């Protein structure tokens, strides 16, 4: 992606450009030649507040997406095992939302009123959910997908009416930052990996092939509008190699 659409602009095909260059295979001492096999395509990458520069499960369920859902639910989700709670996850078909809901299931979250809101989207959905929340309930702000193509600061401001509900019902609203738990990453990755291996954590992906198709068919052009399921991944492997890899993994 070589250009930005500007104020409140959504990415278009014109924002992308494919450039090719020849690289030498001769390496100097201390150099390593690496081939990129997969790249992750996530809504937060469109957040203009992020600075520049900032194998497939490790891009999603057992990567930062999984860690975000894991720590968000276990450390700030206020989900009480055995309690009669209801949790709402906005963007639940997305990469993080699809995992957060499963983590809450494993924490025995039971339906009985909106007590915990895992907010991935913001905007109108956020305001609607907050209007239905119980007193002394909790909101975990994980993302604000609906606002990433705007010039609002993160997190964006909430309407006065919604803010009044938060105050009146004593609703706690916290921002989850996965890097606050760096010291616990190894433990969390082991737990997520175990859940994946045992089938407790169901992993889905939307995979597209070829960097040359980025502007035409990339999940990044669809994931803000429900056009993808779970983690969106761009495969840079040739189709035949992908098939061989899939067979070996099975």
From TrEMBL:
One BP annotation, GO: prostaglandin metabolic process
TM regions (residue ranges): none
Annotated keywords: Oxidoreductase
GO molecular function, one term: 15-oxoprostaglandin 13-reductase [NAD(P)+] activity
Reactions the enzyme catalyzes: 13,14-dihydro-15-oxo-prostaglandin E1 + NADP(+) = 15-oxoprostaglandin E1 + NADPH + H(+); 13,14-dihydro-15-oxo-PGF2alpha + NADP(+) = 15-oxoprostaglandin F2alpha + NADPH + H(+); 13,14-dihydro-15-oxo-prostaglandin F1alpha + NADP(+) = 15-oxoprostaglandin F1alpha + NADPH + H(+)
Enzyme class, first EC level, given as a word: oxidoreductase
Pfam families linked: ADH_N_2
InterPro entries: ADH_N_2, GroES-like_sf, MDR_fam, NAD(P)-bd_dom_sf
EC number: 1.3.1.48
Residues covered by the Oxidoreductase N-terminal domain: 8-44
Family: Belongs to the NADP-dependent oxidoreductase L4BD family.
Protein's recorded name: 15-oxoprostaglandin 13-reductase
Taxonomic source organism: Eleutherodactylus coqui
């Amino acid at each position: 992606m070589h250009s930005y659409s500007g104020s409140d602009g959504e990415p278009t095909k014109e924002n992308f450009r494919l450039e090719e260059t020849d690289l030498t295979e001769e390496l100097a001492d201390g150099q390593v030649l690496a081939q990129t096999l997969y790249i992750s395509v996530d809504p937060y990458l469109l957040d203009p507040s992020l600075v520049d520069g900032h194998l497939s499960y490790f891009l999603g369920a057992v990567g930062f997406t999984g860690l975000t859902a894991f720590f968000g639910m276990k450390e700030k989700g206020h989900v009480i095992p055995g309690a009669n709670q209801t949790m709402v996850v906005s963007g639940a078909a997305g990469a993080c939302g699809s995992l957060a809901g499963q983590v809450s299931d494993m924490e025995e979250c039971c339906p009985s009123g909106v007590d915990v809101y895992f907010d991935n989207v913001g905007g109108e959905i956020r305001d609607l959910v907050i209007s239905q929340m119980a007193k002394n309930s909790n909101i975990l702000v994980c993302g604000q997908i609906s606002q990433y193509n705007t010039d609002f600061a993160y997190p964006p401001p909430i309407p006065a009416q919604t803010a009044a509900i938060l105050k009146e019902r004593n609703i706690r609203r916290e921002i989850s930052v996965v890097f606050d738990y760096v010291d616990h990453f190894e433990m969390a990755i082991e737990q997520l990996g175990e859940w994946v291996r045992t089938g407790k954590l169901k992993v889905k992906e939307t995979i597209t092939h070829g960097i040359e198709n980025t502007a035409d068919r990339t999940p990044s052009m669809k994931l803000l509008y429900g056009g993808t399921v779970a983690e969106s991944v761009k495969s840079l492997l040739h189709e035949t190699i992908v098939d061989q890899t899939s067979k070996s993994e099975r």
